[in-house]
């Protein structure tokens, strides 16, 4: 196991490495929101009495009439003070809006990641244990379809099949039925909050609303995990130590579970980190499709209204989560293979 000192060293090093990453994300979104079409002042001044004078007054109030370097300096200074700006759509601080919606996105992403892990590992392992069989062909077909089918197309197909045709799931209009009273927000995760409130009916409703968007994300994300699992296991199973273990008569189950999977874990863990990081930023379309009140749909609404601050806050938050995921992957490397600890 990792000792305390190496863990602290890794945490400190990764924290220092995160500074330029977050700074780069802040600079990128600042420039991006300035070059995109749309004027926040014109959006705010829209109305029967809006004219050039009113728009110019709002631009002056928002500081949009200042040179870009002054706007950038003011933005970075506000970030250093913990001020992520204010959304003119909701009228609330961006950081508060993001923290309010983050549990919804994390609940969706974590369940989708769990489904991806379960399906991807199962498909990849089954294909590696039977190369050239129907299981291998099934894995390749699923990977090909999953790679080519966009998440929103898969989501539409799932809605058509399970809601419109079969009626097995509730209407895809958010996290909870509008006619029911949601549980107290202890954690923000509805599956946990309903259990803490002892509301099993609410738990089933929340799970029903969560299933389709999580499955849509998982079907699009399992292809790289299944491919890497298959390739890594085939390489390990064909190695000399594993062939020797098979020749000595060790049980096939023991060889696969105790030796092959352990030796194949490093590339699988790397892929898991990439898949989870991708899900954090790519759930925007799925959230919008299923009317999911997460940070992705919040950022998309702000983008359509030329509300710069929420878009910048969304990218910055996703970058911070991406750094945290990479840190977790680094620590897992040291647990799975102690030989990699000196590389950090």
Description:
There is one protein chain. The protein is mostly helical and 344 residues long. The chain has a domain at 94-150 and 219-343: MetI-like (MetI-like fold). The protein is 74% helix and 0% strand. The chain has helices at 4-35, 40-44, 52-62, 68-80, 94-129, 134-148, 151-165, 190-196, 200-237, 240-247, 252-263, 265-282, 284-289, 295-304, 308-336. Helix 8 packs across helix 9 (200-237). It starts with a helix and ends in an 8-residue tail after the last helix.
Defining traits:
15 helices, MetI-like fold, 0% strand, 344 residues
Per CATH, the class of the domain at 94-150 and 219-343 reads Mainly Alpha
Strand content: under 5%
Summed up, the helix count is 15
The named CATH superfamily of the domain at 94-150 and 219-343: MetI-like
* SSE class: mainly alpha
Biggest beta sheet summary? none
Q: What would the principal axes of the Cα set say about the shape?
A: globular
Spans of at least 5 consecutive residues with low confidence: none
Task: Please tally the β strands and state the result.
Answer: 0
Mean pLDDT: 82
N-to-C CA distance: 16 Å
| Secondary-structure element string | HHHHHHHHHHHHHHH
Helix content: over 70%
CATH architecture of the domain at 94-150 and 219-343: Orthogonal Bundle
Which fold does the CATH topology of the domain at 94-150 and 219-343 refer to? MetI-like fold
Rounded radius of gyration (Å): 24 Å
How do the strands and helices of this protein lay out in sequence?
Blueprint lengths: L3 H32 L4 H5 L7 H11 L5 H13 L13 H36 L4 H15 L2 H15 L24 H7 L3 H38 L2 H8 L4 H12 L1 H18 L1 H6 L5 H10 L3 H29 L8
